[in-house]
Description:
A: alpha+beta; Single alpha-helices involved in coiled-coils or other helix-helix interfaces; seven-stranded mixed sheet; elongated; B: alpha/beta; Helix Hairpins; 2 domains; 6 strands
Amino acid sequence: MEKESKLKLDIVTPYGLIFSEDVEEVTCTGSEGDFGVLPGHEFFFTTLKIGMLSYKKGNTTKYVFVNWGYAEVGPDKVMVLADSAEKSEDIDVERAKAAMKRAEERLKKAEEFDFARSTSSLERAVARVQIAEKFR
Amino acid sequence: MPTLRDIRKRLKAIQSTKKITAAMKMVAAAKMRKVQDRMLNFRPYAQRMELVLSDLAKVSERQIHPLLDLRPKKTVEVIVITSDRGLCGAFNTNILKAAGNYIHTLQKEGVALSLSVVGRKARDYFRRRNVPRRQAWLGLSGKVTYTNAQEIAGDLAENYTKETVDEIVVIYNEFKSLIAQKVTITKLLPIGAIETEEARKEPFMGGDFLYEPTREAIFERLLPKYIEIQIYRALLESSAAEEAARMAAMENATKNCSELITKVTLLANKVRQASITKELMDIVGGVEALKD
């Protein structure tokens, strides 16, 4: 692949364009495991699960919470189509913690019918809290 | 000749009508701004989704997923999107007329029709004309959520997969600008060569992709999503167009009220003046008679 020094990272959700800038490195949680992208990456398409996306720009690393979606990767582009996404500074920690507590309680009661829903909302809340705390 | 009291009553009625139409215009304007914001926020997502899919569709075979399946056109599903409420000018009339024409051509071609509607106005229209309807979704206009789109898209995808319909067409009002709506007829399924303007200019990313987990699994999730997005977009466009149309209609109504008020006020003044003149004449006549 030709020498590329920048990656164009786009993060879009149905609620708007979250992020669109040139970055140097991207790490992301794919459904089959984490993966890193540097400029000159192979063409790659993957589904994403609830997790964290981080990107490096200059000397700073920033984190974004991603809730399901797809990533399309090319040598000079990374495009993330997420169901929802929040930058670490935009995460409402209080809300996430409350959601975590709620989900835990519901899981304890072990009601079969919304087990899947509770698990995924717990997962979401935990990821949000982790990311928000990492940023601080 | 109407009496002064009748005219005054009429004037009052017009004035309060004007107040109502003016208020409705404000409400429509506020609602429209809200929907418009959501639409503008949603657009980049929809566009990129189209780009991604057009990339993938190029390298994929049709048998990979039932939603990509091409069949001879025997039954066509037509979805007509209108509003739930009236008072929005020609908004619904235009859509229903276009839908009627489209259905007519389908019948001429000898293709079976399966009709679904969104909005009370479309339901009533086709009910009056005894056109059988498969599905109706009501109460969406003005408060469209993504969940609504998911529900509709899920139903459509299911019918397409079950092969009860072979083609799906959506008819809706596209939001062009504050004063213009455009009736749009788009084919939703089968997914043809997806061609957006940007995609035609340059392939977003060329080359062979590595897929994770597998291409099949990705299509399994991506294609239903694509339909949801298209439906959501149509619903948003239609809502925005509806509020814009209502705004224009109410603006006109308010203007007409003002005109009527001027006219009726003039009439009231004339009648009042006439009665004063008449009374004066009576008095003068009486005085003249006493003089003798």
